[in-house]
Design brief:
226 residues, Rossmann fold, three-stranded antiparallel sheet
């Protein structure tokens, strides 16, 4: 998909170090705008209806700067966190401690970092193939910009009803699929989610944007299996 780079710069307005990830010339994420990444974990886990005395097993698709994964670890009900990231360098940034909060994520015994294609695992052997067939309590996904604005056209099949059914089959009853999107709520995609899942909603997450001097929004879709 192109060269992935991490850069740190001093923001002259905020007077703080900002960490940014780029894919080629395209910005993927910034440590300035993390509200929706955190809400992806909080909204997704809040919707889990499974009652497991031993805790929940959670998948995060896309590691990025680690905000979604760390937010998931803040929930004491999470007993294991499997992070699936396609780019080895992104995992290396965390392991080498190049990002704030990296040790908090990497040193947590619940964390498993896997270098693999999330979309292949979602439609194939599963997110922990070495353990055999396994179900999850939540899958939190933040890779593409939106269900229609993709980093790679090969991801498109995942967002179809057939692709989402393959994912839903890997969830426990009451389990949740949550998805971050940079676009406003998309009614056609919501219709696809509601075709596959028992309940599906789009949550608009608002946050201050110092670059525009106004408020920006992201969307977090939350879908629950019966």
């Amino acid at each position: 998909m192109g060269e992935v780079t991490l850069r740190r710069r001093l923001d002259p307005v905020l007077q703080t170090d900002v960490y940014e990830v780029k894919l080629g010339d395209e910005f993927l994420m910034s440590s300035v705008f993390t509200v929706a990444e955190v809400e992806l974990a909080r909204l997704g886990l809040a919707a889990v209806a499974a009652d497991e005395a031993d805790g929940w097993d959670v998948v995060v698709g896309g590691l990025g700067l680690g905000y979604t994964a760390r937010a998931a670890l803040e929930d004491p009900r999470v007993r294991s966190l499997h992070v699936v990231e396609a780019v080895e360098a992104v995992i290396s940034w965390q392991v080498r401690g190049l990002l704030p909060g990296a040790a908090e994520l990497v040193d947590d015994p619940r964390t498993v970092l896997t270098c693999a294609d999330f979309f292949e695992l979602a439609g194939g052997a599963g997110f922990a193939p070495e353990a055999g067939p396994k179900r999850w309590h939540a899958v939190l996904l933040d890779i593409d910009h939106s269900p229609h604005h993709l980093l790679d056209d090969a991801h498109a099949d995942f967002y179809s009803a057939a692709g989402l059914r393959q994912l839903a089959a890997q969830l426990h009853p009451g389990g949740v699929f949550a998805l971050w999107s940079d676009d406003p709520p998309d009614e056609p995609f919501l219709a696809v989610l509601r075709e596959v899942f028992a309940v599906a909603d789009a949550n608009v997450v608002r946050f201050a944007n110092h670059l525009t001097g106004s408020t920006s929004t992201n969307t977090v879709y939350v879908a629950t299996v019966s």
